[in-house]
Amino acid sequence: MRRMVWPGITAIALSILFLAALPAKEGRAPVAAGTFHAQANSYKVDSEDFMLRPGEGVEVKYHMQKGAVMVYGWKASGKLRFEFHGEPDQKPNKDYYESYELNNQAGSDHEFGSFTAPKAGIHGWFWENKTDKEIEFHLNTAGFYDSAKMFAGETPEELPIGDPK
Q1: What is d(CA 101, CA 140) in angstroms, rounded to the nearest whole number?
Q2: pLDDT tens-digit profile of 18-76?
Q3: Which superfamily does CATH assign the domain made up of 44-159 to?
Q4: Across the chain, which distance is largest between two alpha carbons, in Å?
């Protein structure tokens, strides 16, 4: 029995050595699926402060390519109703959008997470203050987006996005 174990262990060790050395010889290391995605451009960062009076709402959207990732977090001084949604660049009709998360009943005073764009287009949130008090909130994002807009009136406003420091 002992003789059979050593040849088996030797074969396994040589296989591991060969598989580990092969990518290194080619200048690459093995990559597990879904753990690394190279991007052509640097990621961007954005940080915004808002104040909503009772009954007011605001929408912020980021333009992202399909598969681009954004990490986000927002905190508010009170509960806001919100919807996280997107509009693809190629819409089947002018009113088309996709809802990713809807919290329009109880509301929330915070949310943190990451998002991967299912399609190229604008993706973001609509927040609404349904309380009788002013609510301040802060939004932080970092990700592979190329522009940001705020919708709070008739004309969308470009938001300044920056490169990381």
Answers
A1: 18
A2: 444 444 445 555 555 555 777 778 899 999 999 999 999 999 999 999 999 999 999 99
A3: GOLD domain (2.60.120.680)
A4: 81
